[in-house]
Each structure stands twice: as structure tokens, then as C-alpha cells.
Design a protein that fits this description.
By secondary structure, this protein is of the alpha/beta class. The chain contains five helices and eight strands, in the order ααβαβαβαβββββ. The termini are far apart.
Length: 201
């Protein structure tokens, strides 16, 4: 028969192991990605959960800035394509300039958007959203903390942005620990779209 002390020790050990597992699951990691790529992947999953296209946009495009790599890894692209598919949205692989060149981002005659400014450029008539994930602070290669700035573009004067403060754990990768510096340029009359980080031109 097991004595009470042994049972308590087993219970304590089981509780500790459960805590480790739960903690690890709260972080995001992909074994095929580098530590820096993993930071981007975790930020994207935070903003674009596969099961919830909360933006309700019908056309979605994505870009990155400030990272040591200029192209998204194929694993992240695959995730974004699945995210779009789950939300009944079209995945747009083009860059911002390419979308402008093809006329997908263009000056509109919509009265709603023209109230924001003259010659307002709009992504797919307001049904598109362009996400930019910028490495704002930190070195995710050599550090366990970084800040990722997220910009969401619908038109020149209909944009939102926020920072994701990220932390890395050896148990299982990166996670967002805080969302900060939330803003929207419709609420900021001094906003300069040409000076803002993101795809806005």
C-alpha cells in the first residue's frame, strides 16, 4: 500500500508537470522555423487566428518590414492561406505597390471614403485589408523579447495599428504578453500616412 506522503508527492509532481504542459501550450512555435521567424509566426497567429476572420474582409494581403528576412517563410504563407480560406476571404500575394499597379488599391468615388480626404485610395472598395507586421524593437535572434508593430490598412485614412509585446520561452516558443499603443488614424487629425510605418504610400 502507498502511504499518504508518497501519494502527496505524486500529486505534487503531477500538478507541476501539468503546469509545465499548460505553460508550453500557451506559447507558439513551429519546429521548421528559426527563432526570429517564430516570433513573426506567433504575432500573425495572435492577430489572425485561423478560426476567426474577425476583420470580415473579403480580400486579405500581408507584408513584413524590419526583419532580417525579406520574404515570409512558406510555413507562414501556408498558415495565412488557410486563415483566408477558413474566413471565406481571398488571399492576395501581391505587395502594396503591386496591388496599386493592378488597380486593386485605387482612388474611389465612394462618398464615405472621400469624406476622409481628396483622392482617397481604397483597397477593393473597402472590402480588403492589408496587414503589415513590422519588427519594431528587440532582436528576436539573440533576445527573448521583442515588439511587433501591426498596421491594418483599408484606405489611406482608414488604418489602425498596435504593438504586440512578445516574449520567448524555451518551453515552447513565442507568445504575446501585452497589446499596446493602439490607434486609428480616423481619430488622429495630425496623422501623416506618408510617415507611418506600413504599406501606406
Amino acid at each position: 500500500m502507498f502511504n499518504a506522503k508518497f501519494i502527496k508527492r505524486c500529486a505534487a509532481f503531477a500538478a507541476a508537470m501539468l503546469f509545465i504542459v499548460v505553460t508550453a501550450l500557451s506559447f507558439t512555435a513551429c519546429s521548421k522555423l528559426t527563432k526570429e521567424e517564430d516570433a513573426l509566426y506567433a504575432a500573425i497567429k495572435e492577430v489572425c487566428p485561423k478560426s476567426n476572420n474577425h476583420s470580415k474582409a473579403k480580400y486579405l494581403a500581408f507584408a513584413i518590414e524590419g526583419w532580417s528576412f525579406s520574404e515570409m517563410p512558406s510555413e507562414i504563407i501556408s498558415y495565412l492561406q488557410e486563415y483566408c480560406k477558413q474566413g471565406n476571404a481571398a488571399y492576395m500575394p501581391e505587395s502594396f505597390d503591386e496591388l496599386v499597379a493592378k488597380g486593386y488599391i485605387a482612388v474611389t468615388d465612394d462618398d464615405y471614403f472621400n469624406e476622409f480626404g481628396e483622392n482617397e485610395k481604397v483597397f477593393f472598395g473597402g472590402e480588403g485589408k492589408f496587414f503589415t507586421f513590422t519588427l519594431k524593437e528587440g532582436d528576436p535572434v539573440n533576445s527573448d523579447k521583442c515588439v511587433v508593430k501591426v498596421t491594418e490598412y483599408i484606405s489611406d485614412h482608414d488604418c489602425s495599428w498596435f504593438d504586440l509585446e512578445m516574449e520567448h520561452s524555451s518551453l515552447g516558443g513565442w507568445k504575446c504578453v501585452k497589446k499596446s499603443n493602439v490607434g486609428h488614424n480616423q481619430e488622429n487629425n495630425d496623422y501623416d500616412p506618408n510617415g507611418h510605418t506600413g504599406p501606406i504610400k
